[in-house]
Amino acid sequence: MRNEARNDRSPLSAAGSRRSGSDCHASRRLPLQRGGIKGWDPRPLTARRVAWPVLLLMALANAPLWAAAVSQQELARALASRPDRNHGQQLFLICAGCHGASGNGSVDGRIPVIAGQHFSVLVAQLVDFRNARRLDVRMQAVSQSHRLPSAQDIADVASYVSELPAPPAQSIGDGKQLVFAADVYGRLCASCHGVTAAGDGAREVPRLAGQNYNYLLQQLSDAASGRRPRMSADHLALLQRFMPADLGAVADYLSRLMP
Ligand code: HEC
Ligand code: HEC
User: Fold this and answer.
1) Which of 102, 114, 198, 257 is the most buried (most CB within 10 A)?
2) In angstroms, rounded to a whole number, what is the distance separating the alpha carbons of residues 123 and 78?
3) Average pLDDT, the chain
4) What is the CATH number of the domain that holds 205?
């Protein structure tokens, strides 16, 4: 009889079925809801408790973004400025102590050739060092604002350096894997760095031809182990496919190309 009555009621009014449903849910949910209310009420409190650490983490996480924005601005300003070559020549005295009077790096090849590198590449690297987006204590110190106060100074020195004649490398490898290296370079690297490794100033791709072997090897292993933060993830992944000995072979091949 009871069952019948229920069955009768439920199709007649949705309210009936809802009520029976809600009754049943209410009886099951009530304790849960009460507990829920108690449990969920402190939400804002919890939010407040975590707010400061979260804000701090967000600020820290945004620091690279901030550096990226500043360096983007500096890069744009330096690239848009009209370089003063004479002032660049004066500023180059700072550089010559390490990179040599003709900009061809150190004799042991650990300091790079910068002479004749593309203007845009020089500017981009200086801006990156300055904003800790490329890491090296010496270059970070040199590129700080007290040595090169403005984007204009960066453009001036980069312009002077880019016009210096590019010399052959001071350090080369053992020459044992050149055929292999030429093949790998042609397949994986030439699309950006160029068939003759001359780079591409318009895309800020560095010239690699005639760069010092020791320096190239250092950069390739630094980059492969993630110590060049600005290098793109794709570039990183590409270099991580190499065995250390193969990176040496490519560095050797590049150091021997005429700039
Ligand atoms: C105290 C020594 C020192 C001085 C002074 C110095 N450099 Fe450097 N520079 C280095 C070293 C070391 C590296 C390699 C850094 C690395 O391993 O990433 C380097 C790297 C560079 C690079 C990156 C090259 C590339 O192919 O990516 C550029 C560009 C550069 N220097 C320009 C300059 C300019 C311009 C000046 C002068 C304003 C200067 N440097 C002064 C030591 C120096
Ligand atoms: C998609 C384009 C692209 C490809 C492919 C590419 N590169 Fe690069 N490479 C770049 C750019 C852009 C930079 C400058 C990155 C930076 O500023 O950190 C660079 C930087 C470098 C540097 C550092 C040069 C210096 O003086 O600081 C080396 C070494 C290098 N690449 C080697 C290679 C080798 C070896 C390959 C092939 C296995 C390769 N690249 C493939 C675009 C490319």
Assistant:
1) 114
2) 7
3) 83
4) 1.10.760.10
